[in-house]
Amino acid sequence: MTVIEAPRSRARSRTSFEMYSWIFMRMSGLLLVVLVLGHLLIMNVLDGGVQRVNWGFVAGRWASPFWRTWDLMQLWLAELHGTNGLRTVINDYAVRDSTRFWLKMLLYTSAFLVLVLGTLVIFTFDPSMK
Amino acid sequence: MVQFHTYDTVIVGAGGAGMRAALEAGQRSRTAVLTKLYPTRSHTGAAQGGMCAALANVEEDNWEWHTFDTVKGGDYLVDQDAAEVMCREAIDAVLDLEKMGLPFDRTPEGRIDQRRFGGHTRNHGEAAVRRSCFAADRTGHLILQTLFQQCVKHGIEFYNEFYVLDLLLNGGRTAGVVAYELATGELHVFQAKSVLFATGGFGKVFKVTSNAHTLTGDGMGIVFRRGIPLEDMEFYQFHPTGIWKMGILLTEGARGEGGILRNSDGERFMERYAPTLKDLAPRDLVSRAIYTEIRAGRGCGSARDHVYLDLTHLPPEQLDAKLPDITEFARTYLGIEPYTDPIPIQPTAHYAMGGIPTDIDARVLRNSTEVVPGLFAAGEVACVSVHGANRLGTNSLLDINVFGRRGGLAAAAHANSQVHHVELPDDPAGQVEALLQRLRDGGGQENVAAIRTALQETMDAHASVYRTDATLRQAEADIRALQVRYEKVGVSDRGQRYNTELLEAVELGFLLDLAQVLVVSALARHESRGGHFREDFPTRDDVHFMRHTMAYREGTDVRLDHKPVVQTRYQPSERTY
Amino acid sequence: MTLVTLKIRRYDPELSEDAFWQSFEVPVESGDRLLDALHHVKWYLDGSLTFRRSCAHGVCGSDAMRVNGVNRLACKVLIKDLGDEITVEPLKGLPTMKDLLVDMEPFFDAFRAVKPFLMTSGNAPTRERLQSAEDRARFDDTTKCIMCAACTTACPIFWNDDQYFGPQAIVMAHRFIFDSRDEGAEERLEILNDKEGVWRCRTTFNCTDACPRGIEVTKAIQEVKRALIFHHT
After folding, report:
1. In a domain, A7, yes or no
2. Is there a domain that residue A12 lies in?
């Protein structure tokens, strides 16, 4: 028997997480175009390119809070952008609930590690360290 | 295994009339809608041009003119009290749909826009009037969608893909229906205080038809087999503009927007047949004119068997805005670009003016005067009779809304006035079980499709736009022979699950019955009126035939009786346009 | 009259749990629809072949199926455009019940969930509600929907996630969200803000390609997203 019932009410998430995540992907994407292209330009093209990159070069750049902020933003935005992208890929392609859960756990753990390590390095970098 | 259900009101069919009735009945009584198709698949959705009501949004108009046009269009066989009800309530019917959300096209002032349509005139025939309220060329689609949306809103209970196969009467009173569940092959008995049939027409008795494959006259066939008469079945409408050979409908709205019919000489031949309304004359006249042209050798194409609908002089923007669907049909099915090339058309079997006789509250009549308590019918399946011998364009969408609503209200009122259900007859599903058993166990020496094709071919050749005693007798004999062959059909699909082959076999039985009623009724009407044209009796005969035909089943024969026509304001006069 | 081969995905759980391919040689005329060929099979070769159909000219939405790998209405695609060997399968993503016939209930569930009916408040006017021609044109495209499910079952997200509302439900919501007479936009937008709502859309355009009515489905979905972000209908 097929009965048309009154509109069903799904268990709904009242947050707008998916919307903000959708907006975040676009906004972070736009910012990353500037940050990453700029980064590539500086590291690989200008003033003799990648040949000149060494400990001293990095130390010199990170002496300035501007470049530290640049790299910190680049790290966080790229990592979150990529993680969120992979999250949707997992949502789209993982069929079984358990597969989806474990893949996401793996993803979030790796993202967490990368973010913590990267942030730590940017903030605790010591040019005199041997 | 038979399952039993009890409701106050059961509505059979979920097209426009069924859902309009369900909206009323469902809010007043415990209602179930039984439908062999998902509701949005119904053929109301194929209606294109619009729904007439004297809103007078764009020019002067009033419902009395609309009534006159309906009566004259029906060649004075219309029951005028019913036509008055329909045309008066038309205005509210359109406004109701708008309030339900139907997206009508709009005038610059934001009101519902209106356009010209065949046979609808100002001041009793002076000139064409803009009366048809429309939504591009998909008005029916949006009526069906809107009604379904409202049914969802109001939580109407649907039994989808439940095919009603029998009406249960007990002591002449309505007890319920028997339905076959397509998904499982199970039978269900629905006990109900009121039953309303809204199952549509039976266009599939013809080969070239605008009707859906599913329009097999089930409702008419069921009640006819239960001894209830069918009224005016000889009047079948042929729509002038069906796509050549395929029969797909191209709306009269195309001519309302300025389209012109042309013969092989490129002549606008309707000027000769209807000097005032020309291409917008009523459908029976235009269809006959087309066949007259073809018979005179002025048909188009190598076989000279069609004429052209010419839209090439209309601006492409107008076609895109007002006729997007039908121009798309021409492109899809004919590979023709309507901007630049005329579209080959021929008349296509379209609408049954006749059907189950009802009064203006959709109550079914068992004879010329008495009603069957608890039984109702609305829409094409019914004959109120507001269409008489020929329906005007758009009046079917009006009919389903006005009489669907009235039927729903009357059915709920009847159900609420009854304390108890009428007791079910013994072995309520027995007849249906026997019918299905016979078809399942039939030898299968005969093929359902072959019989249906033969039926459609004989009906097209012998009982369509032009009829004579000889052709009708040929059709009658052919149908008799096919009925004998039908006894030997079988079904190869032995399954219970979605057995659509069995369904088609059942449907063919109804088609054969109804074709027989049509032909027998047509044989007895020795005159020409509206959609019924007898070459051997080419004029209207008000002295002998100003009366409705009532056809009863007697064994395997059809017995004819008559019912007087209700006349109020308008005396029959010559019908010219 | 030419011969074409229909390669049809058959399935009847009453006979076997396994689906299989079956080929039929069918004579066709120029101008025949795929539906005509399927009818030929059902009427003269194998009566048990099961599919839905009704109007046969693309307005009722009964006979959506996968034809040569893409969703089409059998009555709106001509044999001559399909080649000599035509594969026909049931729609993907909805449970197959028998041969080409699928269970439509999940599809209609999603449709019902977006409150697909006009919502207004206050007393209804005596006459019609006024609406300018521009306001009427705003949502014209999405009024064409015939609920055939071709779009929803062409969506790769829906294939994998049957909780996703799917393009059709969003199209239906769009039809009301952008109707100037309707007052339920916020409510519908909130429903579609769900994690299974519009944000699941990956703009693959399969839905737009599949729509037999030529509705710009992906565009409609994007417009709903935009309405959610900017709260502007």
Report:
1. no
2. no
Q: Which two tokens stand for residue B172?
A: 């002449």
Give the torsion through C-alpha atoms of B90, B10, B48, B261, to 10 deg.
Answer: -90
Chain-centre distance for alpha carbon A119: 12
- Tracing tokens 């392609």 back to the chain, one arrives at A93
How many other C-beta atoms lie within 10 A of the C-beta of residue B323? 26
For residue B521, whether the previous peptide bond is cis, meaning omega lies within 30 degrees of 0, is: no
pLDDT at residue number A6: 35
Confirm if A22 and A81 have CB atoms less than 8 A apart: no
Q: Is B225 a catalytic residue?
A: no
- Gap between the Cα atoms of B452 and B472, Å rounded: 18
Contact: C199, A7; criterion CB under 8 Å: no
Tokens of C34: 């795929």
Which residues make Cβ contacts (< 8 Å) with residue C17, sequence separation at least 6?
A: none
Quote the DSSP letter at residue B423: P
* A30-67 confidence digits (pLDDT tens): 999 999 999 999 888 888 888 888 888 888 889 999 99
**Which residues from chain C sit within 8 angstroms of residue A7, using beta carbons?**
112-115
**Nearest 5 degrees, angle CA B133-CA B50-CA B77?**
105
Domain that holds residue A99: 21-129
Chains touching B, CB cut-off 8 Å, 3+ pairs: A, C
Pairing of strands B31-35, B2-12: parallel
User: Secondary structure of B489-555 in the HEC alphabet?
Assistant: ECCCCCCCCCCHHHHHHHHHHHHHHHHHHHHHHHHHCCCCECCEEECCECCCCHHHHCEEEEEEEEC
In this complex, which of A1, A2, A4 lies closest to B152 when CB atoms are compared? A4
Say if residue B439 is exposed, middle or buried (CB neighbours under 10 Å; 0-12, 13-18, 19+): buried
Give the per-residue pLDDT at A7: 36
More confidently predicted of A96 and A12: A96
Give the C-alpha distances (Å, rounded to integers) separating B530 from A11, B216, B234, B505, B522.
Answer: 59, 23, 10, 33, 12
Output the pLDDT for position A13. Answer: 58
- Give CA–CA dist B228/B550, Å, rounded: 10
Q: Which residue bears the tokens 């070069």?
A: A57
DSSP B44: G
Question: At B291, which amino acid appears?
Answer: Y
Q: Per the structure, how many domains does chain A have?
A: 1
CA–CA gap between residue C203 and residue C222 (Å, rounded): 8
Question: Would the pLDDT of A1 be above 60?
Answer: no
Residues 73-132 of C with CB under 8 A from B: 76, 78, 97-98, 101, 104, 108, 111-112, 115-118, 120, 124-125, 127-132
Asked if residue A1 belongs to a domain, the reply is: no
- Judged by CB atoms closer than 8 Å, whether chains meet at C78 and B491 is answered as no
Mean pLDDT within B425-449: 92
Place of tokens 């020309």: B278
The whole-angstrom distance between A2's CA and the closest CA on chain B is 6
Residue A102 belongs to domain with CATH number: 1.20.1300.10
In a domain, A53, yes or no: yes
CA distance B344 to B570: 38
Distance CA A40, CA B499 (A): 66
Query: B496 vs chain C: nearest CA distance in angstroms?
Result: 8
Res. A96: pLDDT tops 90 = no
